[in-house]
Amino acid sequence: MSDAASSPNSPVFLPDSSDDEPARGPRGIQSVEVGGQLLKALARTGRRMALKDLAREAEMTAAKAHPYLVSFCKLGLMEQDRASGHYGLGPLAIQMSIAMWSGQGPTIIRVEEGPTHVYVAMRHGTPASLRHTATGKIFAAFGEPGRIAPLLDAEGHSLEEPAFAKELAVIRASRLSRVENQLLSGVSALAVPVFDGFGQLVLAIAAIGPSATLDLDPQGRPARLLQAQARSLSQRLGAPAQA
Question: Cα separation of 83 and 81, whole Å?
């Protein structure tokens, strides 16, 4: 070996490969993309699935899928049924919306999409049915009857309908509205009210998801999370602790 090659001060030249390598697109995080296949599989099938079935649907082994499922459950993107052990979409994998009252009734003012798309024509400015949506029923239950009645009448309904009046009474008692396959087949929703310091309804927060995976149980995690958020917002607006 020559003295020049062994000298510590000798410069080292690396080949410039910038002209040889093809242009690449934005780099993603492979582990996130791989785990996302499990979320897509649940959204595609629309039902809770056992580990082996979910892994097969996502085209990976159960051993590979399991760590992703554990992480997704911790994040709220998935949840595991305690009885069956099957996995389903969690409360953070559903669509969220906020609605306020306007001249046309309950109106969507914000929509937050989850990682799985819910096929609902609900965008900023969309009015919500007072009779057939979870959001609308919150306004029907807690809004002023004088302004609720005309809009309900336009939908062909009335506050005096026995079944509807009974449902609104339950919503007032629980401060939770639940709708399953009413406006659209295969789509369900939960909604909760937010009050101001005068006890007046300010807005409604709703969670919308596939009927096969959205837990509508009043004691379920989605309902409890929504109610906790509504209580927090109400208190920040000056409502008493029980509102």
Answer: 6
Q: Which residue reads 């000056």 in tokens?
A: 238
Domains of the chain are 30-89 (1.10.10.10), 92-236 (3.30.450.40)
> Burial letters for 71-107: b for 16+ Cβ neighbours within 10 Å, e otherwise?
ebeeebbbbbeeeeeebbbbbbbbbbbbbebeeebbb
Query: Between vectors from CA 40 to CA 209 and to CA 73, what angle results, nearest 5°?
Result: 70
DSSP output for the chain: --HHHH-TTS--PPP--TTTSPP------HHHHHHHHHHHHHHHHTS-B-HHHHHHHTTS-HHHHHHHHHHHHHHTSEEE-TTT--EEE-GGGSEEEEEEEETTEEEEEEEE--SS-------TT-B--TTTSHHHHHHHHHS-HHHHHHHHHHTT--TT-HHHHHHHHHHHHHT-EEEESSSSTTEEEEEEEEE-TTS-EEEEEEEEEETTT----TTSHHHHHHHHHHHHHHHHTT--TT-
For residue 90, what are its two tokens? 């969690």
pTM listed for this prediction: 0.65
Task: Please check whether residue 210 is in contact with residue 43, taking contact to mean a CB–CB distance below 8 angstroms.
Answer: yes
10-residue mean pLDDT profile of the chain (243 residues): values are 44 42 48 76 79 93 92 81 87 76 86 58 77 96 94 95 97 96 85 92 89 87 90 87 62
Q: Are 33 and 68 in contact (CB under 8 A)?
A: no
